[in-house]
Amino acid sequence: MNVSSEGLELAAVTKTYGNTVAVDAISLRIPQASYVCLLGPSGCGKSSTLRMVAGHEDVTSGDIILNGTNITHLSPTQRGTAMMFQNYALFPHLTVAENVAFSLKMKGTGKSERLSSANRTLELVDMTALAERLPAQLSGGQQQRVALARALITDPAMLLLDEPLSALDPFLRLRMRTELKRFQRDLGISFLHVTHSQDEALALADIIIVMNEGVIEQIGSASDVFNMPRTPFVARFMGGHNVLAGPQGSFALRSDKVTITAKPSRAKTALQATISDIEYLGTAFSVAAKTDHGDDVLVTVPDTDFAASPVEIGQTVHLQWAASDAHPLSSQVSAHS
Amino acid sequence: MGAGPFRFQRDIVAASHRSNTTIGWLLASPLAIVLVLFLVLPIVMIVVVSFWGATEFSIYPAFQLDNYEFLFASPVTYTVFLNTLMYTVITWACCLLIGFTVAYFLAFHVHSLTWQIALFLLCTIPFWTSNIIRMISWVPFLGRNGIANQSLIGMGVVNEPVEWLLFSDFAVILAFVHLYALFMVVPIFNTMMRIDRSLLEAARDAGASGFQTLTNIIIPLTTPGIMIGSIFVVTLVMGDFITVRFMSGSQSANVGRLISNDVALLQYPSAAATSVVLLLTVLIVIGIMLRFVNIRKEL
Questions:
Q1: Residue A55 to residue A77: CA distance in whole angstroms
Q2: pLDDT value at B8 more than 70
Q3: Which residues pair with A83 in a beta bridge?
Q4: What is the pLDDT of residues A72-111, one digit of tens each?
Q5: Average pLDDT of A248-258?
Q6: Exposure winner among A79, B86, B125, B190, fewest CB in 10 A?
């Protein structure tokens, strides 16, 4: 088996429901042992893609290949994938240990053997103390760890996570995010994580796949996707960018690369604009300005800079940036690079 | 000076506590009155009357155990109670099988909500006619020259009419199942609809076959509904008398018929004693069922 067949490959995978195309012939390749985030707004086809990889949704056409095996028509267990569900889908009538041991029970493993195996997996997620509890007696974070243990007990080649953090409160979300990344590093398997939160994707992913309306808008490393968005959609969806029309087509401009000044310097590109809104963000101010062409531009000003030269709503100013910070965008949607 | 506003506030709190208690009692009273008037009092009356005495033509207040002594001394009582239990167990088993299957089909195989509602309403349509009519409609079907026998003879399955189709225990149980299967469908369907569909996917993801999902996930999560349906069916069948009379052609008896015969003969004390024993039997049966399943979380 050659190296290139390791990992996950999707070849023109399509999913249609009646006349609606949920996923439109997407192709991608994910190397082994990487943390991949499928990112997009709701209804963009990211969940359908994940569920097709998991085997919970039939593929209308195309092929899914995992580690050199075509798994398109295999059952979920035959694929070597395991799924962690959005609300964890823990069996409410079974204890934590029984939940984790469930797949072994289905295989016909004896009771003592499967429970000791479950205990070992629970150790991994630091949940052995609560093995006899029912899911309803656990907090959200604990439930997530149990769900993780239940998915990991099958020794999957790839873990599929469907919005795993969306059920948690913001503080716990950050903590569990760190834990997920740590588990992925320690286990050395691929995680395919569906999310609609760009923060989550940036923090976790080795590779981000941005989807919109059933197609892939961009695939790349987190910093590539953030710093070099390919399309206006990606630039807007990742946030922190202004999409502006220039002489050579539209371009993206990070809001923290724009400065507000009374006298523009000649070395930089500048636009005249009127301040329309100011928001305090803690470490910075977000200033909205309307250019003379009618474009809205967001500028992130560090709080010290803002204190040094404050602006007011209605004030006319110059916005300027280095030409190298303006990143040209393509309007075509095709992610093959 | 400092105590003034504090005491004032405390008075307000106390007053609102008082009025809250009053409002609570007022809110609870309509249901309490209805229950006392129409449930507790009649049962107390029956218990009281069960100790009264009776002659051929009169009943008189007393406190004597004659009715119970007669009841427990008579072999008929035991036969009839056993017969009632047999009807109950067989009807319950059939209703459970049919009810679970129908509910399972509706909940997991019908995917559109519109169809679910339509098919569910279809199940309830027979309930728009009275029990008696639905029961009697079996007579021309099952009778000696009924549709069933004519078809069987026409198909050459039998040469002469099958006698046990009507006016038999078979007919009684058939009618019971027909009348009460829906009482099993509804609560089971209700609990099944509350099962999170992702649990079934999680089971499939863990390698469970359809049958394993059924036995490991669906049945355990449906037991509260099964229990509620079972309580309905058991109480209805054990308390019934008219179905047994019609469908057995007065050839079989259950406890309900025992009571109704006593009432027809104006032997109220004896009827009351039988009722009390029947009530206790039903309560014991339900008590046993509730030992197995906690239905509280379902209510």
A1: 9
A2: no
A3: A160
A4: 999 988 898 999 998 899 999 999 999 999 999 999 999 9
A5: 89
A6: B125
- Rounded to whole angstroms, the Cα distance separating A36 from A56 reads 19
- Which of A249, A247, A258 has its CA nearest to residue A296? A258
User: Which of B191, B205, B215 to substitute to test the interface with A, most A CBs within 10 Å?
Assistant: B205
Whether residue B16 has pLDDT greater than 70: no
Q: Is the ipTM of this complex over 0.95?
A: no
According to DSSP H, which parts of chain B are helical?
3-35, 41-49, 66-73, 75-104, 113-124, 131-136, 138-142, 147-154, 169-193, 197-205, 210-213, 219-239, 242-247, 255-264, 268-292
- What is the pTM assigned to this prediction? 0.81
CA distances to A84, A85, A234, B87, B222 from A92, rounded to whole Å, are 16, 14, 40, 35, 12
> Is A103 in contact with B207 (Cβ distance < 8 A)?
yes
Neighboring chain A residues of B218 at a CB cutoff of 8 Å: none
DSSP string computed for A102-142:
HHHHHHT--HHHHHHHHHHHHHHTT-GGGTTS-GGGS-HHH
Q: At what angle do helices B255-264 and B219-239 cross, to 10 degrees?
A: 30
**B226 neighbors B100 (Cβ within 8 angstroms):** yes
Contacts of A144 in chain B (CB under 8 A): none
For B209-218, b/e burial (b = at least 16 CB within 10 A) is eeebbbebbb
Q: Given this model, what pLDDT does residue B143 score? A: 84
A326 three-state secondary structure: coil
Helix axes B41-49, B268-292, angle to 10 degrees: 120
* Residues A273/A320, Cβ–Cβ less than 8 Å: no
Structure tokens at A80: 């070597």
Q: Band the pLDDT of A295: cuts 50, 70, 90.
A: confident
Return all residues near A283 (Cβ < 8 A) that are at least 6 apart. Answer: A302, A303
Q: What is the pLDDT of residues A4-55, one digit of tens each?
A: 568 899 999 999 998 999 999 999 999 989 999 999 999 899 999 999 999 9
Answer yes or no: do A106 and B202 touch at CB < 8 A: no
- The answer to whether the CB of B166 falls within 8 A of the CB of A17 is no
Cross-chain Cβ contact B221/A102 below 8 Å: no
User: What is B73-290's CATH topology?
Assistant: MetI-like fold (1.10.3720)
**Cβ of A106 and B216 within 8 Å?**
yes
Q: Which one of A50, A56, A58 would you mutate to disrupt binding with B, by most B Cβ within 10 Å of its Cβ?
A: A56
Which chain A residue's Cα is nearest to B206?
A103
Nearest to B201 among A56, A151, A154 (CB): A56
Q: Which of residues 127-166 of A touch B (CB under 8 A)?
A: 150-151, 154
Of B205, B217, B221, the CB nearest to A83: B205
Interface of A with B in 59-88 (CB under 8 A): 75-77, 82-83, 85-87
B221: which chain A residues are within 8 Å (Cβ-Cβ)?
Answer: 92-93
pLDDT score, position B13: 64
Whole-angstrom distance, CA of residue A288 vs CA of residue A184: 39
Q: Does A89 touch chain B (CB under 8 A)?
A: yes
Pick the residue from chain B with its C-alpha nearest to A155.
B206
**Reduced to 3 states, what is the DSSP secondary structure of residue A277?**
strand
Q: Which residue of A has its CA nearest to B207?
A: A77
